[in-house]
UniProtKB/TrEMBL annotation:
Keywords: ATP-binding, Nucleotide-binding, Transport. Residues 12-246 form the ABC transporter domain. It holds the Pfam family ABC_tran. SMART domains: AAA. GO terms for molecular function: ATP binding; ATP hydrolysis activity. This is ATP-binding cassette domain-containing protein. InterPro entries: AAA+_ATPase (IPR003593), ABC_transporter-like_ATP-bd (IPR003439), ABC_transporter-like_CS (IPR017871), ABC_transporter_ATP-binding (IPR050763), P-loop_NTPase (IPR027417).
Length: 319
């Protein structure tokens, strides 16, 4: 890892970043990022979430040097990506969404070539060590085209770590992969983070972001909606949901001014969302009984990241 660690400064500093894609004969100009500012602290696993088209890939591609921003600034490990491009680049490893390899290279050669591209002397390269880390040592000399999808993704992570960057960015690393492979990839991400690598990832799997990330930023329509520790974000709404199965088909729903939401979730299931600071599950049930419902069964759950995400992303209008 580079020894230029900036004490306590953020791993990535994003300031007023605007990206306007130019119009083409098919498309209107598109303002994909509308003055985005936030920090990624050192040492954690940071989740970048947002619905399709929110601007996540645009931001990652700007950091990777694949897309030019229109204005604003980004510092990576203290290095400005425009003024100090070379140092900024050595401090970040990026795993792209799409798998691209020359099919005729072996995993060992892929890593050696990447090491060469970063100007790392042969004696200092870590190709064998990285192959072990992503559990591909027995595929060292196989052609990349013969690897399974999961193996290719692991090889991409190793490739992004060839120059030992302190920051690893993964763009949708688990999109479309099966449960077992997803588990393996997250384990790998966890191991790298334990070794001190700051990880930034985008994902559509909110449950995983909730489990893996210690901090989450949500962007929507190119704007930052929130950036908070995961626990705070999930606890933010203080809402609880109680699902009640009643003994007859539902014609009218129960009502109470303290119910945040009350919906029919099945033939005989009513789901009531309420604020924990305003009422208890017992009071919800009492209300239902008072209004003539006979309760057969009850389950409750806390609001999770998915609820928070839906609530926050539906508050901002189309831009
Ligand atoms: N090369 C481009 N030219 C014009 N518009 C683009 C280009 N790339 C992306 N966009 C637009 O910019 C917006 C942000 O796209 P981006 O791919 O960054 O979103 P995203 O959050 O990564 O979405 P996804 O999760 O689907 O990958 C979208 O409206 C998209 O259509």
């Amino acid at each position: 890892m580079p020894d230029t660690t900036p004490d306590n400064s953020p791993a990535i500093e994003i300031r007023d970043v605007v990206k306007q894609y130019a119009s083409s004969n098919k498309a209107e100009p598109k303002l994909a990022l509308k003055g985005l500012s936030f920090d990624v602290p050192q040492g954690g696993v940071f989740g970048l979430l947002g619905p399709n088209g929110a601007g996540k890939s645009t931001l990652i591609n700007i950091m990777a040097g694949l897309v030019n921003k229109t204005s604003g600034s980004i510092r990576i490990w203290g290095h400005d990506i425009d003024r100090d491009h070379r140092n900024a680049k050595t401090c970040i490893g990026i795993v792209p969404q799409e798998i691209v390899f020359d099919p005729f290279f072996t995993p060992f050669e892929v890593l050696e070539n990447q090491g060469g591209m970063y100007g790392i002397a042969k004696s200092l390269r870590r190709s064998e060590e990285l192959l072990r880390a992503v559990r591909l040592e027995d595929k060292r000399d196989a052609y990349a085209r013969t690897l399974s999808g999961g193996m290719k993704r692991r090889l991409l992570i190793a490739k992004a770590m060839v120059h030992s960057p302190p920051i690893l960015v993964l763009d949708e690393p688990t999109a479309g992969v099966d449960v077992e492979l997803r588990r393996q990839l997250w384990e790998l991400v966890g191991d790298l983070n334990d070794q001190g690598v700051t990880v930034v990832l985008t994902t559509h799997y909110l449950e995983e972001a909730e489990q893996l990330c210690d901090r989450i930023a949500i962007i929507n329509h190119g704007e930052l909606i929130t950036n908070k520790p995961t626990r705070e974000l999930v606890g933010m709404m203080g809402e609880k949901i109680v699902a009640v199965t009643v003994d007859a088909d539902i014609t009218d729903l129960p009502h109470d001014p303290r119910f945040r939401k009350c919906v029919k979730a099945g033939e005989r299931v009513i789901e009531v969302t309420y604020d924990k600071s305003e009422m208890t599950a017992g009071q919800v049930l009492a209300k239902l009984q008072e209004q003539g419902f006979t309760v057969d069964d009850v389950t409750t759950r806390e609001a999770d990241l998915e609820d928070v995400f839906v609530q926050l992303t539906s508050q901002v209008g189309q831009g």
